[in-house]
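Hi all, long-time lurker, first post. I run a small reading group and we've been trying to get comfortable going from sequence to structure in the token notation. Rather than ask abstract questions, I figured I'd post a concrete chain and ask someone more experienced to write out its structure so we can walk through it together at our next meeting. Sequence below, copied exactly:
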Amino acid sequence: MCRNIRTLYNFSPPASDDEIRASALQFVRKLSGFTRPSKANEAAFAQAVAPPIRQAGLALVCEPGRYLVANAGVLLTKVLYRKHAGGKEFVVVDAGMTDFVRPSHYNAHHEIVPLENGARPEELVNIVGPICESGDFLALDRKLPTVEPGEYLAVLGTGAYGFVMSSTYNQRPRPPEVLVDGDRYYVARQRETLDDLLRGEVLDPTTWYQGGS
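-- Answer (accepted) --
Happy to help. Here is the structure in token form:
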């Protein structure tokens, strides 16, 4: 990622202070589209970002946002069944694009790990949901320890843009949200039901409105 960042900014000094500041501000705007840096490359990320900002005499005001909350959440999903089709191995789980749309919508990469015994041999699989849509996937061509139906997987880094971007497409009620604090937890948002999906719909009209002028 840092290599890509360096290509966005010409580190040779511009001719004037105004040009320096304009270049630095453009650099920051371009940075806004990058994913959060991992712990392993935070220092390299800072080394790539700091020089043009320092050269421009500007200060950075950071709003961490997703950097803080992304890793605070995980999506737990159950393996429903496996299948082989088109020369590929598919792991079908009970979560899909309605629960977490970032992989499908942004091609976002999120680590997926089994909850138990992650030291098994790996295989290349597509991890997909149960919705009959080509975009219903959590990961494509991903190495994953061999898992079987009934096992649980954790999709990591889903604390941001997870539930807030979820939907009830295909009449799929949304899952509960559970807050964990050490060895205790509570249900922060109840699991939705079909009744929740129908709430607000009016079967018989109570008031008719006349159209036109």
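A couple of things your group might point at:
The radius of gyration is 23 Å.
The chain is about 25% helix and 25% strand.
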